[in-house]
Amino acid sequence: SSEDGQKINDNDEQIVRGSFVADPTDQLNVVLTSEYQRVDNEAAPYISITHGTGLVGMNAQIEGYADPDEYSLAGGADIDDFSTAFPGGTTQPRVVSFDEYERRAVSAALTLDLASVTLKSITGWHDFEAGRSLDLDGGPSSGFQAILFTEADFFSQEFQVLGTAIEERLEWVVGAYYSSEDGTDLSESFLADALGAVLSPVGIPVPVFEGDVQNDSWAAFAQGNYQLTEKLRVTLGYRYTEEDKSLVSFNRQTIGGIDGTVIDCSVPGGVIGDCRYKVNDSFDGDAWLVSLDYHVTDDVMVYLRSAESFKGGGQNLRGTPVVLTFAPIESETARDIELGFKGQFADGRVEVNAAAYRTKYEDIQRSRNEEIDGQFLTLIKNAAEATLQGVELSATWLATERLSLELHANYFDGEYDDWPDQLLTSSGEVTPVDRSITPFPDPEYTYTASASWDQPVSFGYVSATVDYIWQDDALLFPDRVYALPPTDPEWQNPSLVTQESFSLVNARMVVEVTDMGLEVAFFGRNLTGEEYLTGVGDNSRTALGSIVGLAGEPRTWGLSVKKYW
Is 545 left (phi over 0), alpha (psi -120 to 50) or beta? Predict the structure, then answer.
């Protein structure tokens, strides 16, 4: 908890699952499942690194709060102890942040085995409601806050036909898929009443973004595995997808927030009383897979695979009265190639997996600056091309009948091949910017080592696991350096927003009472109390003027209970 008693990182999660399995006939299998999930999180994720001299700083001064350097993260640690990003201390938040989520889901899977083929039907439905309140300045003043609400319904239906051919050397599947989703996204962000009372007797206009979405998707697919020889197998797969997406935007400016008085419409052609704008867009794309795997021995396999797929396009929900701000976002595509190895040794007590990959991305969907009809905006666009490559290694050793050891190591290298952009300088000039030198935020190296032990007992079993995780330096906010004008001495200086390498230790002990269907787990995370940041939000070059950080989870102890019927 914070000094004023507000709960921080308090998470309450409830999950209830149920399933029903039946075989009405020898050929028919039916599996019905249902799930309910509810999450209530009173976390305060943002910490203030500086209020700055903009609106957030003005509000803090009006409310009588000192410079944030006089504050520190719980435990008295200075941010310099765990990040090279910014000097100074951090503050305890005052605005309560919460994250609430409720989800319901049901599914039905029917499998019918016929003489020559197998028929499958998979039907799914779920809906969810989510609400969030974020203290975006992270300081002790009431500051800058955002409230977001989302609700959606999702339905999907898939049909499959499976079979074998050519003396069972060929395994094949063909199918079709359909999904439909509709929902609403609603959000507002505003400054506290203290500053609003000074700047405007009736209040500061609040931007409200609201959109109703309807997304429909159709797909057809086929895949086959063919055993060329006793040791060599080839896999070919293909999928074609069409998507229809519609958005009805109700973006507006109000006095009083979401339910306040509308003073202006923020959509093309909108008028007070009818703030709405509708767009419809269609997208299509295909995906394919080619793979070869070769069994050197019964316990060792090597493989080579290549695949291409796409992420569907969409719309900018936070558009403005300028029509071009609602222009569609085209699909993003990725093509990769991977060479891998899987092997078991020492009579199956040692397992080793390794893979090297290279992925080429085109039309990457990124937030970028745009000047449209003299107005400078930040929109999601198909902005860049990039190449990612890396190596992944994992090994498991069953040291004894009860003790197993695991090691995971990853190397990552990514770079943008092309990313043209433009920058609005303080003098109002638009300057071309080459953002292709922007580093990727992923750490170059990560390692995980774990040890697991289990022991049968008279009432069930007891097990324990200890994990050690190490992460290399990571760039928390790569776009930050491009918010500066090229004349700034800190231009393109990634060290400003780099989190230095750190390590975490986690532990978990489980006691299962078999006859009661009961599992009790005791766990601890970040046992060494490592202090680190997982993200940075830099508004220092905007009207807000503040810089905030996302603090990693502190040392945490917990208890979980599961009941099976």
Answer: left
- DSSP string over 171-208: EEEEEEEEEEEEEEEEEEEEE-HHHHHHH-TT---EEE
Give how far the C-alpha of residue 332 lies from the chain's centroid of Cα atoms, to the nearest Å. 17
| 315-340 pLDDT, tens digit each | 988 888 888 888 899 999 999 999 99
Cα–Cα distance for residue pair 497/49, rounded to 1 Å = 12
**Torsion sign, CA atoms 357, 363, 366, 368:** positive
pLDDT in tens, 71-97: 333 333 333 333 333 333 333 445 567
| Tokens at 261, concatenated | 């008085």
3-state helix, strand, coil in the chain (%, to 5): 5, 60, 30
**Are 238 and 346 in contact, with CB atoms under 8 Å apart?**
no
Distance of alpha carbon 280 from alpha carbon 54, whole angstroms: 39
DSSP 8-state class, residue 462: E
Token pair of 388, please? 């990612």
- CA distance from start to end of the chain: 36
For residue 323, give the nearest of 315, 314, 333, 312 by alpha carbon.
Answer: 315
> Torsions phi, psi of 7, nearest 5?
-75, 140
Give the tokens for residue 247: 């958005």
* C-alpha of 233 from chain center: 35
Write down the residue that tokens 């300045």 correspond to.
137
DSSP assignment letter at 55: H
